[in-house]
Automatic annotation (TrEMBL):
Membrane topology: Multi-pass membrane protein
Domain THIF-type NAD/FAD binding fold residues, every copy: 104-360
Keywords: ATP-binding, Ligase, Membrane, Mitochondrion, Mitochondrion outer membrane, Nucleotide-binding, Transmembrane, Transmembrane helix
Organism: Cryomyces minteri
Protein name: THIF-type NAD/FAD binding fold domain-containing protein
GO CC terms in record: mitochondrial outer membrane
Length: 504
């Protein structure tokens, strides 16, 4: 073995191979060493290029909501108020001072009522004109825990109606503005600020308990229909007390502002759309709302249509700050949102303190009337079935008293579409059903009418009798029996209902 090694060592080929291997190792080591040295040099050079960050550097100016500018730097007063609020929230604030500040509420609500208010947790969704005034009233009245939810920022146009915003707040989140200003009024109030958009997908988190305390009340001050309906439906389904503000835009009469059940609200497009969408979700009443009964008139403010040029340019929905949000500036008198917000806060405070509630507007539902209209519709469908040669025994209608109420109150505004009379109302088919198209007998043992809500029209009983005789069982078309204005009105209402049908 040793002789073999000796021979291999002195072999010329072995020497060459050994030399090549050693040379390769040395070259590879040199290359790797050079690369490592270059990397270290570049890292050190990069680090050296980064300036030292002192108190005056721009990077230190990022504030609590992400703005990298000192434009919104807090004033000395803001800093002092924030420091005082921080102390008050941990209990370092004389309770006698708080009671002195709340003395007028105390003698009105009594010690028991004020204690309930001070122990409460209220959520305000929407912190614009309505929500800011509601929040300010709650904080000034002693509510100790307030959660604020709003995705928007204060703008110059907000200042005509916002409760506390100033020029220095323009560009800041509305929830931060409210907390910062109200801490100067009631430093003991604790604010949970959510700079977020409310939606059905996040409702559970946004309305969740705070420190194991469930919200005692929710104020809906949203002006977007989808978010508003999602909030009200969630609160109704989870037994969370809620009050909703309807539209303050284009309103100017303070004496026409009421609080009542949502089923009793009238003369407000936002209220109408909200009622319809909620009814389709199975909620027809039980939600108090602030609304105005003021009617539009000549010379009054109105929502102007978008210019034709905007429609020609593309999808107008893309003009909004968010999808499906308003793309027009609403005409708003700055005093009206304040009234709506203060009415909502007043309702909440009385409810929290268990104070005797005012006599709010009651339900507009007329259950006996709806039952009678449904019974008459049942009889009409049975007569039409028999006239078509079909046994009408056991015929069932896919219509409920709630559907009748929806059609009468929401679609036809409680009036006949023909004469506009509000008494002795009935529902009838507008068109004669096609032969064999009145009864669905595909399920053995079940006879179901093919009737759909958008096929029904509201008339007086006398008009319904005439319509049945001449159109539904006769040979005439509806256009031949009724005048053009009535036909136009019916078709408009039916198109309206067809548009809402997609939410079912």
């Amino acid at each position: 073995m040793s002789s073999f090694i000796a021979r291999a060592t002195f072999s010329h080929q072995a020497q060459l191979a050994t030399t090549a291997i050693v040379s390769g190792v040395l070259v590879a080591g040199a290359i790797l060493g050079l690369q490592t040295a270059k990397k270290r040099y570049r890292v050190q050079d990069l680090k050296a290029s980064i300036p030292d960050v002192d108190e005056d550097h721009a990077a230190t100016q990022i504030n609590e909501y992400g703005a990298a500018s000192d434009v919104f730097a807090p004033s000395k007063e803001d800093e002092q108020s924030a420091a005082l609020a921080a102390r008050a929230r941990i209990g370092d604030y004389d309770d006698d001072l708080i009671l002195e500040q709340l003395a007028r509420n105390r003698v009105f609500l009594t010690d028991s009522g004020l204690h309930k208010v001070r122990s409460s947790f209220v959520v305000v969704v929407g912190c614009g004109g309505v929500g800011s005034h509601a929040t300010a009233a709650l904080a000034r009245s002693g509510v100790s825990k307030i959660r604020l939810i709003d995705f928007d920022q204060v703008t110059l146009s907000s200042l005509n109606r916002h409760a506390v915003a100033t020029l220095s707040d323009v560009g800041t989140p509305k929830v931060v503005c409210l907390r910062r200003r109200l801490e100067q009024v009631a430093p003991w109030v604790r604010f949970d600020c959510r700079n977020e958009l409310f939606g059905a997908a996040v409702a559970e988190q946004q309305l969740a308990p705070w420190e194991e305390q469930r919200p005692d009340f929710v104020i809906d001050a949203i002006d977007n229909i989808d978010s508003k309906v999602a909030l009200l439906h969630y609160c109704h389904a989870h037994d969370l007390p809620v009050i909703s503000s309807m539209g303050a835009g284009c309103k100017s009469d303070p004496t026409a502002v009421f609080i009542g059940d949502i089923s009793a609200s009238t003369d407000d497009p936002l209220s109408k759309s909200t009622r319809r969408r909620l009814r389709l979700l199975g909620v027809s009443s039980g939600i108090p709302v602030v609304f105005s009964t003021e009617k539009p008139g000549p010379g009054k403010a109105s929502l102007l249509p978008l210019p034709e040029a905007e429609f020609a340019a593309g999808r107008v929905g893309e003009l909004g700050v968010l999808p499906d949000f308003r793309v027009r500036i609403l005409p708003v008198l700055g005093t009206m949102p304040a009234l709506f917000g203060l009415c909502a806060a007043n309702h909440v405070l009385l409810a929290l303190a268990a104070y005797p509630p005012p006599a709010y507007l009651s339900h507009k539902r007329r259950d006996k009337l709806y039952d009678a209209i449904l019974a008459a519709l049942q009889g009409l469908e049975e007569r039409l079935a028999r006239a078509a040669g079909t046994d009408a025994t056991g015929l069932r209608l896919p219509v409920t008293p709630a559907d009748v109420a929806y059609l009468v109150e929401e679609v036809y505004r409680g009036r006949s579409a023909v004469s506009l009379l509000p008494t002795r109302l009935a529902l009838v088919r507008w068109r004669k059903p096609p032969p064999g198209g009145l009864v669905d007998a595909r399920t053995p043992g079940l006879k179901r009418s093919t009737l759909r809500l958008r096929e029904l029209v509201c008339m007086t009983k006398e008009e319904a009798v005439r319509h049945e005789a001449q159109v539904l069982r006769g040979e005439s078309e509806a256009e031949e029996v009724w005048d053009g204005e009535a036909v136009r009105r019916v078709e408009e209402r039916m198109r309206e209902e067809e548009a809402f049908e997609r939410f079912r």
